[in-house]
What we know:
Elements: E1 2-5, H1 40-51, H2 60-63, H3 88-105, H4 119-122, H5 127-145, E2 159-162, H6 192-204
Antiparallel strand pairs: 1-2
Helix pairs in contact: 3-5, 5-6
Domain Deubiquitinating enzyme MINDY-3/4 conserved: 47-207
Catalytic activity: Thiol-dependent hydrolysis of ester, thioester, amide, peptide and isopeptide bonds formed by the C-terminal Gly of ubiquitin (a 76-residue protein attached to proteins as an intracellular targeting signal)
Organism: Parnassius apollo (Apollo butterfly)
Amino acid sequence: MLHESQERPAAYVEERVLYARNKFLTTSKPAVTGGKPITEELAVELRLTTFGTSACPPRGEWVRSPLVMRPPNQPLSYGLVAPRNGARSLLSGLQAHIIKWLLFDSRPLTKDNKPTEPPEGYLRPSEEQQEEALWRACSEVIWRCGGGFNAQNTSDTKVVVALPTDTTYVQHSAQYYQDGVTEKFQLEEGAGALLLLYAAVLSRGWDK
């Protein structure tokens, strides 16, 4: 499902709903309401833009690359788990936004704009801080792709987000080879990197 937003982020979202996920539990995912089901034309365009072909599935690493932070309150708690595969470049870009938020945007405001603790203190986030850093970093990436930070383009800013469903909207054909994600945006264990990539491409637009 595709959700579009034309509202400007207020640093970047004032209200949000986060669904906790536990890989050891088998509870059902929250139902997706609203949005637009993906079409065959859009699925083909996405795969052509991102992987160069829609006639064969992308490498399995993209379906199995999650957006997961390292254990909290540790020396490397600021880091994403980034396997050595093709999705690592995307995760590295997202990692930069996470570090930027932890070091600068998350700091309490002071009169002289100086940090109240050493930098390494901000790089040992708690689980709650990790969660916020991750969704803020994803929001910034998608909004930048959609032109949300362009002062000359404030009225018609639009971003698109890929949401998970259990329904297949595009059937297998000679023009399109199903990969288990694109045709239904189903968030299987570890498809977060691919969904972020699709959101960035959709928000940026084909002609850019």
